[in-house]
Amino acid sequence: MADYPPLSERPLKNTICLFDVDGTLTPARADISDEMLELMAALRKKCAIGTVGGSNMVKQQEQVGRNTIDVTTMFDFCFAENGLKGWKLGQELPSNSFIKWIGEDQYKEMANFVLHYIADLDIPVKRGTFIEFRNGMINISPVGRNASNQERNDFEKYDLENGVRKEMLRVMRERFAHLGLTFSVGGQISFDVFPNGWDKTYCLRHLEDEARKPDGITYTTIHFFGDKYFEGGNDYEIYEDPRTIGHAVKNPDDTMKQLRELFDL
Ligand SMILES: [Mg+2]
Fold first, then answer.
1. Does residue 36 lie in a domain region?
2. pTM for this one?
3. In a 3-state reduction of DSSP, which class is residue 133?
4. Residues that bind Mg(2+), according to the entry (predicted)?
5. CATH label of the domain that carries residue 178
6. Tens digits of residue pLDDT in 157-203
7. Distance 64 CA to ligand 1 centre (A)
8. Any catalytic annotation for residue 120?
């Protein structure tokens, strides 16, 4: 591993480049290239660099660390699950979770409501795992996540005609309006529930924490590179955020091209 100047001694010490992982640093669902790794190493001599992935750290370690190098040593900052999990120079930063945020009592109330609601739903097929409990969110599925591919396709079609998820979302938004939750439909059979603001902008909280530390660095220029920058994409909020300079990329080659131009690499 090459040596890097301490963060406070980089030529552009108040600048950080943050990168989405899938489709931006790596091809979709594939590993990072040697060329990208070399470019990251060169950029790291000029400013701070960080990842911002939506998936968990295991996935990031696979794609960016190729399961051979500890990814937290390759970037100054690594953010997984939009920043609910973070590392700075290999050290883990304070983490957050959906259950920590909502609390057991309020979660129980919501889980009970969801299970009652689904119990009363008259839909052609029900399977299992109606609530999937994840670190940063819950995922709710009226048919259940154990549905087979055929059952998923059938539910999607039925849902389109009958608005099962649409109506459930309407009722839940009203019932839990006081909690400040985002309800997001994606995929064929389910929807996600997570606190407002727990998109990729969440990771910016860690950078703001840095500025408050003794001798901490204030990042006045935050570049963000992402391929899902359009509305509904998981880079949209951070790409549009006034605290960042958003760069829309088509693929990893485009990321490299833009970096070479921007930083004269
Ligand atoms: Mg992406």
1. yes
2. 0.90
3. strand
4. 20, 22, 227, 239, 241, 244
5. 3.30.1240.20
6. 999 999 999 999 999 999 999 999 999 887 899 999 999 999 999 99
7. 13
8. no
